[in-house]
Specification:
Length: 354
């Protein structure tokens, strides 16, 4: 009897120690998961944003920046991009990077760019009245299966897909029109976007707690128009514009960030930046970087009793003035990791040379 009692006491002690150890291990593992998810989410965002504006950098001087692409009409956006409070425009404008402020909800980042292998300058159109073939002044660098962005005299843009290029006659055969790629009828100038242009929205799906993207050309593996998960465990994303407006010290670099601003208001709100006005185009060229904060949350909740009195908010961008900061609500039984980085928009910086 004594032996059994001692054994029971020893077993209880071992199980108690094991329970504490297992709890600590799960806490550490959950924290590691949040760290990996957050770092990967930020890496993928940075990779895409750094390429924003490629193939259309010169277009700032030729009515490309801000022109609405009539093909990319958002008739049926999937969640979380169908939130009317974001203010996403019905027709996507050609701006390298845009931020749609989500208020208390996560922001949405829009990225536009191309991957042309050879042609990076505008291409003058000689004849595009019928839309097929399109005759240009110089077809060098345009390859079959390249997407072409055409500007029209009315300030809008079109998309076309080259299927064949005759370098002798400088004529381009365009694929049959589709809802997303309607053709290049009456285009004035063309810009080669390459075979895999980016018209992508990035946001946080609050239902699955994951960073997701949506291809506005809807070129998915199975043809479905859905979102693509990038990283799970992401619960919040906020972004700021880095502005160079010349108000900094004399002699500063043209790439210097003079101030950070939230994507709201009469100048930096998405409605203002997507307006077809000279003011909107000028404001867009002042955006030389964005600063992004991603909040990752651990998967497994801890016992609430273990975290009584913990913090229930996180402050994003704490080194900036209060007007640029965000307060994010948290739950004390979860672990959170905040990843904050500044991403230069390199292709926007070089527009001064065109």
């Amino acid at each position: 009897m004594v032996g059994i009692l001692v054994s029971l006491i020893g077993t209880l002690a071992i199980m108690s120690a094991f329970s504490v150890y297992e709890g600590k291990k799960r806490t550490t593992t959950s924290g590691d998961d949040a760290q990996q998810n957050g770092s990967y989410a930020l890496y993928e965002l940075e990779r895409q944003v750094r390429s924003a504006g490629s193939s259309i950098a010169q277009g700032k001087s030729y009515s490309v920046w801000g022109c609405p692409i009539t093909a990319l009409k958002a008739a049926a956006m999937p969640a979380p991009f169908n939130n009317a409070a974001l203010g996403l425009p019905a027709i996507t404008p050609t701006v390298p990077v845009l931020i749609a402020a989500g208020g208390a909800s996560p922001d949405v980042i829009s990225v536009i760019g191309g991957n042309s292998s050879q042609q990076v300058f505008k291409i003058g159109v000689t004849s595009a009245t019928a839309g097929n073939p399109v005759v240009v002044g110089n077809s060098f660098g345009i390859l079959p299966n390249d997407y072409l962005l055409g500007t029209l005299a009315n300030g809008t843009c079109q998309l076309g897909l080259a299927t064949a290029v005759n370098t002798a006659s400088n004529s381009i055969t365009v694929a049959a029109p589709t809802p997303r790629v309607p053709g290049l009828v009456n285009s004035v100038n063309l810009f080669d976007l390459g075979p895999g242009p980016v018209f992508t929205l990035f946001g946080v799906d609050s239902t699955s707690n994951s960073l997701v993207s949506f291809d506005q050309l809807q070129r998915t593996a199975n043809g479905a128009a859905g979102t693509l998960p990038i990283a799970d465990g992401v619960v919040q994303m906020k972004a700021l514009y880095g502005i160079h407006d010349g108000t900094g010290p004399a002699g500063e670099s043209v790439y210097a960030i003079d101030k950070w601003v939230q994507p709201v208001g009469a100048t930096w709100g998405i409605g203002a930046l997507t307006a077809s006005t000279v003011t909107a185009a000028a404001a867009a060229t002042q955006i030389v970087a964005i600063r992004v904060a991603v909040v990752a949350q651990s998967r497994l909740p801890e016992r609430t009793s273990d975290y009584l009195g913990g913090n229930t908010t996180l402050t994003l961008f704490p080194d900036l003035p209060a007007a640029e900061q965000y307060s994010v609500a948290t739950q004390t039984q979860y672990r959170y990791k905040v990843y904050d980085t500044t991403i230069p928009i390199r292709n926007s910086m070089i527009v001064q040379y065109y």
